Amino acid sequence: MESAALHMKSPLPWNGASPGAAAEPPAVELLPWGFPELDALTGGLPRGGLTVIAGPASSGRTSLALSLLAQMTAREEICAWVDASHSFDPGSAQMGGADLRRLLWVRSSNVEQAFPAADLLLHSGGFGLVVLDLGDIPPSALHRVPLSFWFRFRHAIERTPTALLVLEQEPAAKSCASLVLRLQRKAVHWSVMPNASVKPARLLRAVSLCAEVIRSRLPIPPATMPPASFSVRTPWNFPNEAWNDR
Q1: pLDDT tens-place string over residues 82-107
Q2: Average per-residue pLDDT in the chain?
Q3: Residue 85: how many CA atoms within 13 Å on its side-chain side?
Q4: Rounded to whole angstroms, what are the CA distances from 71 to 34, 38, 65, 66, 77?
Q5: Quick one: 42 exposed, middle or buried, by C-beta within 10 A (0-12, 13-18, 19+)?
Q6: Where are the domains of the chain?
Q7: What is the pLDDT of residues 169-204, one digit of tens each?
Q8: 67 Rama sector, left if φ>0, alpha if ψ -120 to 50, beta otherwise
Q9: Please, what sign has the CA dihedral across residues 27, 177, 188, 74?
Q10: For residue 164, pLDDT beyond 60
C-alpha cells in the first residue's frame, strides 16, 4: 500500500493565473465545530489543513471527533475514519448522528498500516473530513514516524476541501499542523435511570472539557484569550426526562 501511495498525486485547482505567475494564497475556509465556545477560541476547523486534537485518555478527543463527523455527514459530505487500534465503534457514531452510509471506515492493526492508508485516502481526494485516530498509540511509537509523512499529508490537502483531523495523546505533526488543540477533562456527568433492574444504574451522560490552543497558523482571536470550556454529550443518551442527573 505504501509504494502505491507514493506515486499518487493530488492535482491543485487552477486559479486562472498564468504559469509562473505569483498567486495569492486562497482564503482558508473554517468549518464550525458545533460548540460556540470552541468556535470562538479557534475560529473553526480549517479545510485544506491538518488539525491535531491532543490529550490523555478520556479527555474527550473521540467524542469531539464523533460530533464533528455527525455534522459533516449531515451536510452530505463523504468522510473517512482511519482506525489505528481497532477502537472505533460505528454503533456509537450512528447513535451520535453520523450517517454511516457516507463514512469509509479503515481498520488497521498498527501505525505501519494506518499512515500509508491515510496517505492513500488524502491523495485520492473526494473527502470532506478524514480522521486519523492515533489516540491509543503510545507517543514513543509516533515519534518514530518519519516527518516526511506529515509533510505529505499537508501537501496532499492544501487548496482542497478536505479537513484532516488527527487524534493523539501528544502532538507529533509539529510545524505541519495548521491547528493544535489540547483537551483536558474537567468534569464527568452521570445519569441514573430510576426504573433500572440493577440499582444504582448509571450511564455517562456528558463530559465537560477544557480546550487550549497550542499552535495555530489561522486568523484566530488574540492569543491572550483564555482556554474554552464546553460540554460534549455521549451519543447513547436517553431522553432527558427519563433520567436524573447525578
Answers
A1: 999 899 999 989 998 999 999 999 99
A2: 83
A3: 10
A4: 8, 15, 10, 9, 9
A5: buried
A6: 29-186+207-217+226-237
A7: 999 998 999 999 999 988 888 777 666 566 666 777
A8: alpha
A9: positive
A10: yes
| Bond preceding residue 13 cis, omega within 30 of 0 | no
Three cell numbers at 137? 498509540
Which pLDDT tens digit goes with each residue over 200-229?
667 777 889 999 999 998 876 655 578 899
Give yes or no for residue 10 having a pLDDT over 60.
Answer: no
End-to-end CA distance of the chain: 49
State the amino acid at position 180 in one-letter form. V
d(CA 130, CA 127): 7
| Fold held by 29-186+207-217+226-237 | Rossmann fold (3.40.50)
